[in-house]
């Protein structure tokens, strides 16, 4: 092609931009998707605060659906691996286990919530114990007491979850709701900021 031939590609198109600029321009054009994610986060955060039981059940249902989809995908992958004379046993076992746990989560949602809380409590107790043990190996100048305090807080949190798992589940739901609400507000602000730049020239919108 002759280098003197004028390009038919309009200036300011995505092809004239770097990868980062093109990505920013694409976000500006799809600002409403970002804002919609923010709205969903805010709604879920409010539901978690005012209807924690419903939020818990919805999380369990989504988790169960994920496990079922993951399990079915694992089983299909194991069948394909078997046809190609590859290792398929572990894939099949993981797939069946995911399907079974997903079905149990749908049939016994409260049990799933309690199991999650108990696992969280065990993790907090173990982590707190390790932090407390490590604190005694540090000198005061290296933050021994801060690490010890962190270990004690983790242990207390684990004990409280173990004593009252249902209350702990509600508290965890509130925390998740607080995160979802704040994250949603940030995305909503970002979405409207992108909207204000969507009508700008492509290059300016990307670099703004």
Give the gist of this structure:
The chain is mainly alpha-helical.
> Helix amount, in percent?
over 70%
Average pLDDT number: 79
Silhouette: extended
**Largest beta-sheet details:** none
Alpha-carbon distance between the two ends = 35 Å
Number of helices: 8
Total discrete domains = 1
Taken in chain order, the helices and strands follow as HHHHHHHH
Class from secondary-structure proportions = mainly alpha
Number of strands: 0
Taking all Cα atoms into account, the compactness measure Rg is: 25 Å
SSE topology sketch:
Layout: H1 19-29, H2 31-50, H3 52-83, H4 89-107, H5 109-135, H6 144-163, H7 165-197, H8 202-207
Helix pairs in contact: 2-3, 2-7, 3-4, 3-5, 3-7, 4-5, 5-6, 5-7, 6-7
Descriptive overview:
By secondary structure, the chain is mostly helical. It has one domain. It has 8 helices and no strands. It is extended. The N terminus and C terminus are likely disordered.
List keywords for this structure.
disordered C terminus; 0% strand; 8 helices; disordered N terminus; single chain; 208 residues
């Amino acid at each position: 092609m002759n280098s003197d031939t004028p390009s038919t590609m309009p200036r300011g198109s995505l092809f004239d931009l770097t990868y980062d600029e093109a990505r920013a321009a694409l976000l500006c054009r799809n600002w409403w998707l970002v804002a919609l994610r923010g709205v969903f986060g805010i709604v879920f955060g409010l539901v978690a605060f005012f209807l924690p039981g419903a939020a818990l059940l919805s999380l369990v249902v989504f988790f169960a659906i994920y496990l079922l989809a993951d399990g079915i995908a694992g089983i299909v992958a194991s069948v394909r691996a078997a046809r190609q004379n590859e290792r398929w046993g572990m894939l099949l076992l993981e797939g069946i286990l995911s399907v079974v746990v997903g079905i149990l989560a749908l049939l016994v949602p409260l049990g799933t919530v309690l199991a999650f809380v108990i696992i969280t409590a065990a993790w907090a107790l173990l982590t707190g114990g390790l932090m407390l043990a490590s604190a005694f190996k540090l000198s005061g100048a290296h933050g021994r007491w801060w690490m010890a305090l962190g270990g004690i807080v983790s242990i207390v949190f684990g004990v409280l979850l173990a004593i009252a798992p249902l209350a702990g589940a509600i508290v965890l739901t509130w925390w998740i709701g607080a995160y979802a609400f704040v994250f949603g507000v940030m995305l909503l602000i970002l979405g409207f900021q992108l909207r204000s730049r969507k009508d700008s020239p492509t290059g300016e919108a990307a670099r703004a």
